[in-house]
Amino acid sequence: MYAVTGITGKVGGQLARNLLAAGCHVRAVLRDEVKAATWADQGCEIALARMDDADALTTAFLGAEAVFILPPPVFDPQPDYPEARTAAAAVADALRRARPGRVLSLSTIGADAKEDNLLTQQTIMEEAIGATGLPVTFLRPAWFMENAAWDVASAHDHGVLHSFLLPTDRPIPMVAIKDVAELAAQLIQEDWSGTRIVELEGARVSPQDIAAAFAKTLGKQVRVEIVPRDGRESLFRSQGMRNPLPRIRMLDGFNEGWIGFRDNGRMVVKGNTKLIDVIAALVAEHPTGGLTALPK
Fold this sequence. Notes:
Layout: E1 2-5, H1 10-21, E2 26-30, H2 33-41, E3 45-48, H3 54-61, E4 66-69, H4 82-98, E5 102-106, H5 120-130, E6 136-141, E7 143-144, H6 152-158, E8 160-163, E9 172-175, H7 177-188, E10 195-201, E11 203-205, H8 207-218, E12 223-226, H9 232-238, H10 245-256, E13 269-270, H11 275-285
Parallel strand pairs: 1-2, 1-4, 2-3, 4-5, 5-6, 6-10, 7-9, 8-12, 10-13
Antiparallel strand pairs: 9-11
Helix pairs in contact: 1-7, 3-4, 4-5, 8-11
């Protein structure tokens, strides 16, 4: 049996569907009982647990051949990341008590960065799970191509893509959610010992590449407009963020090069989904824009 947390999200949900399609027994671990019926109808066993509830997580993980860990994202964390520390402690406690056969944890590119930034939350989770002594794989995917969902409205309505990534012709590792879920389904069924790190990218993509994909999909010119660094704090605060510095520093990490893959990505696993296919799907999902916020 495979226990899957984060199943109501895009990666966790697609992973669960991949496992079910392969004939695997899946236990859906979720906090919202209302959403449980959807997964029960698909053949999942249901376990209700929040990611900060060690007792409920222990019950959810008991008897599992492997557990998939996907903590809820916190884009506006409090200083020193108390939300991440609480979740990490609860998850690690539950894993120690339940002793599943293996653990697959969805982490991120940059989880090994030395500078404090928004992705430090994943560093905290990696350290906590790694200390359990269980066989664990940390899957570190690149920047999600689907983050371009936040650009659909401005590209569609105004022919503009707002970019926090600089310079705009500099490519960074990106990957599609489909490829993340497919690799996760493969990894969680493997047998291994100790700790391993698997890095995943689909392609090196620049903001200019994303704009070109939007232009091809929409049949109109799309230009890139830079969001200046010195205006980001006020912008993020105007959008409701209380502690924007970690997000700003994460963007600095990509722009300055201290967030990246080990050995410049020489050992990465390659995904197959193309950027143009992701953009086309996003536009089809929001054919008249529909999103108004600036991208992560």
